[in-house]
Amino acid sequence: MTDSRVALLRGINVGTAKAVAMADLRRVFAGLGATDVVTLLRSGNVVFSGAALTAPSIEEAVLAATGVQSSVVVLTAREFRAIADENPLSAISTGELNSADGSKSFVTITSEPFGSVELPDAATLAPERLELGRSRAIYQWMPDGSLQTRVPKSFWKQFPGHLTARNENTVGRIVAELATRSD
């Protein structure tokens, strides 16, 4: 059996744009040979086994089945768990950052590893926090919410490939799903 994988589809079911039913998404993955397909929430989070699908094959199949174009980031279960485990902001001991509100803490995952990246000035971002992971993740805590972020849009243009973000609550749900699997 192939190890479990996580596919993160960018921008589906955000507001009324790019609407995709999760049942349709599960059918797309099954049609590509995936097994044990589970969708989490309505924001394009798919955990599956049985097939080492590539982002381009998923993107093409989703477009053909639903008419929706969405960039996809695919990770092995091990890669996803490592990204979740290495979050440097989860270990900060200040009361504000240890807030139970996971909707204000985000993990942005890149489709490709990144090299040198210039971070915005921490004082300019404060009280927000922004940290880089080892290779494919950017961690962000936004006490005023994601719509009020102080990170300039130009920062995100430094990264190769596609980017997709999930809040800490969603990351936790995916990790919990992966924990139910035997790989």
Characterization of this structure:
The chain is an alpha+beta fold and 183 residues long. It has two domains: 5-81, SP0830-like domains (Alpha-Beta Plaits, 2-Layer Sandwich), CATH 3.30.70.1280; 83-168, no CATH class. 28% of the residues lie in helices and 22% in strands. Strands 2-3-1-4 form a four-stranded antiparallel β-sheet, sandwiched between helices. Strand 6 (129-132) and strand 7 (137-141) form a beta hairpin. Helix 3 crosses helix 6. The longest helix is centred in the first third of the chain and has 12 residues, at 55-66. It is globular, with a radius of gyration of 16 Å. The mean pLDDT is 89.
Radius of gyration: 16 Å
Helix content: 25-40%
Sum up the overall morphology in one term: globular
- Approximate strand percentage: 15-25%
Mean pLDDT: 89
Q: Number of DSSP strands?
A: 8
- How far the N terminus sits from the C terminus, by CA atoms, comes to 9 Å
Strand order of the largest sheet: 2-3-1-4
Low-confidence stretches: none
Number of helices: 6
- Structural category is alpha+beta
Profile the largest sheet.
4 strands, antiparallel
Number of domains: 2
Written as H for each helix and E for each strand, in order along the chain, the element string is EHEEHEHEHEEHEH
Q: How are the SSEs placed, and which strands pair?
A:
Layout: E1 5-9, H1 22-31, E2 35-40, E3 45-49, H2 55-66, E4 72-76, H3 77-85, E5 105-110, H4 122-125, E6 129-132, E7 137-141, H5 153-156, E8 163-167, H6 168-179
Antiparallel strand pairs: 1-3, 1-4, 2-3, 5-7, 5-8, 6-7
Helix pairs in contact: 1-2, 3-6
